[in-house]
Write a structure and sequence with these properties.
Chain B: Keywords: Transferase. The complex is a heterodimer of chains A (58) and B (405). Chain A has one domain. Chain A has two helices and two strands; from the N terminus they run ββαα. The radius of gyration of chain A is 15 Å and the shape is elongated. The N and C termini of chain A lie far apart (54 Å). Chain B folds into two domains: 220 residues, Glycogen Phosphorylase B (Rossmann fold); 178 residues, Rossmann fold (3-Layer(aba) Sandwich), CATH 3.40.50. At the A-B interface, helix 1 and helix 2 of A face helix 2, helix 3, helix 4 and helix 6 of B.
Chain lengths: 58, 405
Amino acid sequence: MSGEPYQVIGDLYNRIFTVQATHIDVKVDYAVWNQIFANLPKDYKLPDAAVLLLDKPF
Amino acid sequence: MKILLATFWGIPHVGGVWKYMTQIQQRLEAIGHQVDLMGTTIDEAGFCIHNRGRVISKEKLRPFLDAKLAAPYAPQMHSHPLIRYYEENRYMMELSAAYMGLNQYDIIHTQDIFTGRALSRVKPAHVPLVAQVHGSVSGELHSHFRLHPHLGIGENSPAWRYCKTIEYYGATAGDVTITSTQWQKNELMHDFGIPEHRITVFQYGLDTADFWYKAQAGTTMHRPPGKKMIIFPARLSFVKGVDVLISALGMLKYMRNDWECWIVGDGEKREELERQANGLALQGLVHFLGVRHDIPALLMQSDIFVHSCIQDNQPFSVMEAQHAGLPACVSNAGGLPEMVEHGVTGLVSPVRDPVTLAQHLELLLRNDEFRLQLGRNAAAWAAGHWSLDLMIDRLLNLYTHVMNH
């Protein structure tokens, strides 16, 4: 198994989701997601609520 | 200066946005700047910094997003497949950009509304963003919805409203918004309420050295003796209105027979357009050449350029045709009337009006002196107007201004 990416439970990164549900069976590549997480703004959220309001903001 | 040019679309591609990005990259790197090009990989399997060979696969992101953004947690995202497609891909672009690291750039210049919104959400606050709008995504999609009522997408449906909403947020994502035509500026002001002072207009430029190099390299195609050539280089998609030209040629055939037509490009409409041409008995007169890399040389062998599009902003194909000294028969869609002056550098017909287009083609085929004069006028206009040096100067000034404010 050497060379395979180190997998961690995705719930570690739940902070970026508006609805923080648990998915203990979903694993992510630690190196990739740690780098993403480190570079995201603190207030970053998914999904993009403003766009999904689907309402004219103007 | 370290600059990121970014697009939502696959790179490298044949279209105008990629040409625009590479022109900027080449010119700015020649004077000591560093320019990275970000986009979707051409197989759509990931996102890349193309010139650095850096790629992140969507499969590192998608399964996790699918779980966390399933319908119970993000119901609006699932209210239509179109919304889900664009939003999921945009979120993957946001995460990919974070992975690549935006902190290294002095300025970010996005090339479409999806990228504008995406990178504005993940960039560091101190890095300015210039949002370029090359066309109207909502305009194109709304036209598509209107012409395909069986899709069931009306003005109150989520997919329709999504197009308008994402266009607003994408176009306003930057510290400044650039567009190349007054038409597009007016659309942004009137349809999306973007304040005039936030929009900068300057036209594209064409790398004439590259154009003339390719023109002189020649082509394997030869014009048939005794015929004049009509040429329409474009992606074969609905919005380009190739079907309008074919309808016009179906009429022109009964007016005169001293012409043939090259349709250069490929796309999802190709089979349908070939059927249309065959149905009008245009075999032998209309030739579908597919994607070619010798368009400048083909233009040099042509007599009349056509761009009968439904909507377009400022296509490079018109600039190239004008440099080649061809009169342009264009529709009055979008920014085209800003490129072609009726009766001076070409002839302008209403959108989706094959009768007028056929009359314009007939006039130019009948009157050699008029056709050649329009071509000469077009070449003179092109030489003064489509300057790449001027465009790069304006862009650099804008970058500097945005970085200093």
